[in-house]
Design brief:
This protein is α/β, with parallel strands linked by helices. It folds into 2 domains: about 150 residues, Nitrogenase molybdenum iron protein domain (Rossmann fold), CATH 3.40.50; about 110 residues, Nitrogenase molybdenum iron protein domain (Rossmann fold, 3-Layer(aba) Sandwich), CATH 3.40.50.1980. Helix 5 runs antiparallel to helix 6. The chain is globular. It starts with 5 loop residues before the first helix and ends with a helix.
C-alpha cells in the first residue's frame, strides 16, 4: 500500500470506532414467562411498553389441571426470567424449571419480601371465621396487611415461613398488600436481569403499587354494605381476599378442586348453608357447576360466580385490577339483594 494513503486510512478507522457506540442497538429486553393471569398482569404492568411477558395458563384453564403443551415448553427453554407463585400453586412447573429453564432467573413470589402467607384451612366450614375480622386497612400493620390472630395469622415469606410448604395457601395475589409486594419483587428481578432499563421497571412498579393501594380502598368501600353477609365458595381460594376486606365466608364445597367431595361433605355444607343462613354459594368458571347446583338444592341460597384467575379477561396490565373489581362486584351483587 502506498505510504501516502496510510494517514487517510487511519483517519477513517478512527471515525468508525468513535461512531460505533452511537449506532449500537438498544439493550435487549429479557424474555419473561409467567404462569397465571394475575401474575402476568402485574408483570406486564412493570414491563410497560418495553415488552410483554408470555402467559402459560390462559383462558379458562386452571393451574390445578394445567397440562403443558410443547409451545410453552419451548418458551420456558428460551426464558431469561420466569415469574410464578411457587410450588404450592403451580406444581406442574417444578420439574420444567429444573430441566428447561435452569438457566433462567426464577422469581418465586410466595417468597417475595413483604408477602404474607396464610395456612390452608383444614376444614371446609368456618362458622366463626368472621369473628374479630378487621377490614380495609382499619386495623392494619405498617405493611398494609390486616392484623388478625388465629390459625390464619399471616407470616412473612422469603422462605423462612413457619408454614410447611404443603400447607401454604397459594392464592396470595388476592390480598392487595401482597400484590404490591409482588410488584416490587418483579421489578427488582427485571432490573437485575436488565440493568439498562432498571429505572423504567422501578418507575412502573411505583405507579402500579399506588394504583393497587387506591384499588384496595375502592373495593373496601364497595364491600362495606355486605361485609357481614355469610356465603359459601366453591373451593377455598379466597382466604386472602376475605381477610383483606373482612368478609364473612362460612365454608367451601371443597378444599381442593382436584378432589371430588364426598356425599357426606355435600350434606354437611348444605346443612351449613341452612344453619348459618348463607345468602350465596359461588361457583367458578374453571370448574363444572354441577356440585354447586347439588349443594344449592333445597336451600334458599342464591348462586353467584367468583373467578380468582380472571378466566374471561384479556391478558395484560388491566387484568389484575379488573379481576379484583369483578370479585367485589360479584359479591356485592349476590349478597346485597334481598
Amino acid at each position: 500500500m502506498p505510504t501516502r494513503f496510510r494517514p487517510y486510512l487511519c483517519a477513517v478507522f478512527a471515525l468508525v470506532f468513535v461512531a460505533a457506540p452511537l449506532s449500537a442497538a438498544p439493550a435487549e429486553v429479557p424474555r419473561v414467562v409467567t404462569t397465571i393471569k394475575p401474575v402476568h398482569s402485574l408483570t406486564a404492568a412493570v414491563m410497560g411498553e418495553l415488552g410483554a411477558p408470555r402467559l402459560l395458563v390462559d383462558g379458562a384453564q386452571s393451574p390445578h389441571t394445567y397440562d403443558m403443551p410443547p409451545s410453552d415448553a419451548y418458551a420456558l427453554e428460551r426464558a431469561d426470567v420466569v415469574v410464578w407463585v411457587g410450588p404450592a400453586l403451580e406444581t406442574f412447573l417444578q420439574r420444567p424449571l429444573e430441566s428447561l429453564a435452569r438457566n433462567a432467573h426464577h422469581v418465586r413470589l410466595q417468597d417475595a419480601p413483604g408477602v404474607k402467607l396464610l395456612r390452608t384451612r383444614v376444614s371446609g366450614t368456618w362458622a366463626s371465621a368472621h369473628a374479630g375480622h378487621a377490614h380495609g386497612g382499619a386495623d392494619r400493620g405498617g405493611d398494609g396487611h390486616a392484623a388478625h390472630g388465629g390459625a390464619g395469622t399471616p407470616v412473612s415469606g422469603r422462605g423462612d415461613s413457619a408454614i410447611p410448604s404443603d400447607r401454604i395457601d397459594p392464592h396470595i395475589w388476592l390480598d392487595p398488600a401482597n400484590a404490591r409486594a409482588m410488584v416490587r419483587a418483579i421489578a427488582d428481578a427485571l432490573a437485575e436481569a436488565d440493568p439498562a432499563h432498571a429505572e423504567h421497571y422501578r418507575a412502573n412498579a411505583a405507579k402500579t403499587r399506588e394504583r393497587i393501594a387506591a384499588l384496595a380502598k375502592d373495593i373496601d368501600e364497595r364491600l362495606a354494605p355486605v361485609r357481614d353477609m355469610p356465603f359459601v365458595v366453591f373451593h377455598d381460594a379466597y382466604h386472602y381476599f376475605e381477610r383483606a376486606f373482612g368478609l364473612n365466608a362460612v365454608g367451601a364445597i371443597t378444599l381442593n378442586p382436584q378432589r371430588q367431595p364426598s356425599a357426606r361433605r355435600l350434606h354437611a355444607i348444605r346443612s351449613q348453608i341452612r344453619d348459618l343462613d348463607a345468602r350465596c354459594v359461588f361457583r367458578e368458571p374453571q370448574f363444572a357447576p354441577d356440585l354447586v347446583a347439588t349443594v344449592l338444592e333445597g336451600t334458599p341460597a342464591r348462586e353467584g360466580v367468583l373467578d380468582p384467575l380472571g378466566a374471561e379477561l384479556d391478558a395484560g396490565p388491566e387484568a389484575y385490577p379488573t379481576l379484583m373489581r369483578r370479585l367485589a362486584q360479584s359479591l356485592r351483587d349476590c349478597l346485597g339483594t334481598s
